[in-house]
Amino acid sequence: MKLYYAPNTCSLSPHIVLRELGLPFELVRVDNKTKKTEDGRDFLAINPKGYVAALELTEGQILTEGPVIVQYLAELKPECGLVPTAGSWERLRLQEWLNFITSEIHAGSAPLFNTTLPEEARLAICEKLFRRFDFLQQVLSGSDYLAGNTFSVADAYLFTVLRWCRFFAIDLKRWSALSTYMTRIASRPAVQAALLAEL
Question: Under a CB-based contact definition with an 8 Å cutoff, are residues 35 and 50 in contact?
Fold first, then answer.
């Protein structure tokens, strides 16, 4: 498999999952500005949406959208426990988390990358985002991970998008459980290996 990625983007999530599962894969870096891969190919020919992550399967199919990719990968080695059994109530809860992260944290914080954003708009975005952080603080005050007692694909995704806070001058220490959670996830060997590989 090939994972098309760019540093400091949501493609870190499936990268972490690949390493957690110990699956063989090749990393292919994409320049987000030029839409060229590191070997000179047109990334738009690989993923016409124009953004990472994209996973090229061994049979040549391309899978996109991080929450879908991480579930697909975890199903390849269900014994690793990164997703609950398909069709179970626990799996629905995990999908609920993935959708929350996608819509409320990922999409909710992405506008902050726009450096020309008026201050009033930035404050409104942060106010809404901080309400979501308050909710996560409540959840993680009583649990080490989002979907129960074990690390899941949802944790890989949340960790990935919360890392962007450093670009927005948002100090997660304001939410003690969230800050502790980030430290916990960052200490995982697969996470450290993924971060190192993307330098």
Answer: yes
